[in-house]
Amino acid sequence: MTAAQLVFKAPLVACSLGDESAAKHCNEAAESACSARTAPPRPRLSSAAGCCIRIRRNMMAAPGDQGELAKGKRVQPPWSPPPRTEVPKLYLYNSLTRTKEEFIPQNGRKVLWYCCGPTVYDASHMGHARSYISFDILRRILKNYFKYDVLYCMNITDIDDKIIKRARQNYLLEQYKEKKPSPTQILQDVLTARKPFLAKLAETTDPDKKQMLERLHVAVSTALEPLQGAVQGDAEGAVLEGHAQLLVEESKDLLSDWLDSQFGSQVTENSIFSTLPKYWEGEYHKDMAALNVLPPDVLTRVSEYVPEIVDFVKKIVENGYGYVSNGSVYFDTAKFDAGDKHSYAKLVPEAVGDQKALHEGEGDLSISADRLSEKRSPIDFALWKASKPGEPSWDSPWGKGRPGWHIECSAMAGSILGESMDIHGGGFDLRFPHHDNELAQSEAHFENDHWVRYFLHTGHLTIAGCKMSKSLKNFITIKDALAKHTARQLRLAFLMHSWKDTLDYSSNTMESAIQYEKFLNEFFLNVKDILRAPTDITGQFERWEEAEMELNRSFYNQKAAVHAALRDNIDTRTALEELRVLVSQSNAYIAGRKNAKLAPNRMLLQSIALYLTDLLKTFGAIEGAEPIGFPVGTNGQNVDLESTVMPYLKVLSDFREGVRKIAREQKVTEVLSLCDMVRDETLPELGVRLEDHEGLPTVVKLVDRETLLKEKEEKKKVRADSSYICQDRSASSWHLVAVCVAWLGESSV
């Protein structure tokens, strides 16, 4: 042993002999030796250095640990973390690449999101619901599930060719009605208005538009005949007046177009053009609230941002991408596309030159021959339109005018979100030319190539397989849809389909959503009943057997599957299917425990129900603060009806169960019949379902009255059929027994 080794050994020997002072001096000597030694090769240097460190650790051990040190247990054993696993990433389908891309916000967890809002000139329809419910779901999931800090901005288009034309036509038609023209005059005016309409019908080639015009022609012709006959037959005034008013109503579209062509240029008061969009914007917000769509964080209106739009257009012109022509300003697509870092029509390059789409993008009032001749190229588009007679106008460096359609979103989004945003959303039909033009003019203004990082487009909505269009008068309003189905059922229907694919709004689609809602609701009601079973504070914690272990494994597996689905382009369709599997497994567990006359594990089922409820709240399918399940109550009631009435219902149920027990023992069938009547006739009218189970307590559930009454009618029908089959001797014996037993099982008697 070398001298140096002796020096290093000394502190350990001293410690083992209990001589702390000697150990201290030896330790100092060892440290001195460490620093004084001639540096050996690298491996030996490492060993010596480790020796010094171990000596210092040993000396820092508590006195009571010295015996352990003597046995060789001088330090804690080494620890190593588990293997690092890659954090799963979120992927979104990006229309800019037409593929799923990893979602990477520009600024940490902050997400800047702009969504194209409605053009408010008529009632909101299911096409609007398709976009806004879908984006509401995506927004809620990004914010509440993935925990992004989302700033959601949306616009209201309240200056637009459609609004101007509709406002003008409504105003002129009301003026016409107020003049109270005679039935003869009405007949003459409709016949005059029909001439240009028939010419338009003859030249229309689009099959959907032609079909719409033909329906209108039939309606007008049907209303014309009675009035023509009444006029020729010198009918009484009241009869003539009735036919005339019916004709005005059926031909209002024809009359409005004709009146607008005659007198539209004389409508100059700007307030006429603001009344219509203000009314329909209010209706839109009411519809969104009824659908449980969250309001945007920021709402912008075109009419409130005209100065910002003017400045935005000026900058584009200064950058060399816009030109003035006859008081209007147009975007120079050729100049922009020739730039090194710019590209026109990023979303749908194959659509460049589609004149039909381009004309729709410019608007009905902006595709006249004189307007089109102002452009350098047919694919250039208006940034600022010189106002013609009969149109609202604002001051600008180029004269009186109004904003183009596409420029509004660029200017308003730029004012709120800056030169680049993370997400831009809109309907699939807005990709070209609207969103492509937005991209071009914004990148021309900011001189960048990344105004939008991720473009999300919701799929089309069809009605029983047919195209839906407001312009074609083939649409269902949101109010009409809500009259047939609840907001939750509509949302579940959307959740059961991919947000980016076409959704068919049909009876089959809605029936699937209704059945899924019932499936979940029954599970929630069963869990609530289990949790209401009396127990003390310690009794709620029950021993886990293999059945609980298996269900818990399934629970974690399904949660992982849901998470994977949501990371994959927020695939709510797959997520809901995974939830269905989880509920089915839970139902099987509950049934197994009840068959064995054992109570299900309440804490495990509560955890599953809480998870399901929380996720459905994240999706926007559950409102309110109830921890488990769907709220009970109608007409927007926010009271916790269940916790209020359930104690009384439980008393009633227990009393009824006691009465049934005595009646069975005493064989008093009349009392048993009365108990059945309470269950089958009285309580369903109040929205209460009692479920009797042999050998188990009666289950009490609060269910909406309409559902219970429908179930009641279905049971009556089954009983009637069963009674007939029981008397049919030709029925097979097995079927006979099964049906009769099922029928008799409904009764306590």
UniProtKB/TrEMBL annotation:
Q: Tell me the Pfam families matching this sequence.
A: tRNA-synt_1e (PF01406)
Q: What domain of life?
A: Eukaryota
What keywords would UniProt list here?
Aminoacyl-tRNA synthetase, ATP-binding, Ligase, Metal-binding, Nucleotide-binding, Protein biosynthesis, Zinc
Q: Which GO terms describe its molecular function?
A: ATP binding; cysteine-tRNA ligase activity; metal ion binding
State its Enzyme Commission number(s).
Answer: 6.1.1.16
Query: GO biological process: what's one of them?
Result: cysteinyl-tRNA aminoacylation
InterPro entries from the entry?
Answer: Cys-tRNA-ligase, Cys-tRNA/MSH_ligase, Rossmann-like_a/b/a_fold, tRNA-synt_1_cat_dom, tRNAsynth_Ia_anticodon-bd
Question: Is Nucleotide-binding a UniProt keyword of this protein?
Answer: yes
Q: Which reaction is recorded as catalysed by this protein?
A: tRNA(Cys) + L-cysteine + ATP = L-cysteinyl-tRNA(Cys) + AMP + diphosphate
Domain tRNA synthetases class I catalytic: start-end pairs: 105-513
GO CC annotation: cytoplasm
Broadest EC class assigned to this enzyme: ligase
Key word Protein biosynthesis present: yes
Question: What sections of the sequence does the record tag as coiled-coil?
Answer: none
Which cofactors are named for this entry? Zn(2+)
Cited function: Catalyzes the ATP-dependent ligation of cysteine to tRNA(Cys).
Can you name this protein? Cysteine--tRNA ligase, cytoplasmic
Question: Source taxonomy lineage?
Answer: Eukaryota, Metazoa, Chordata, Craniata, Vertebrata
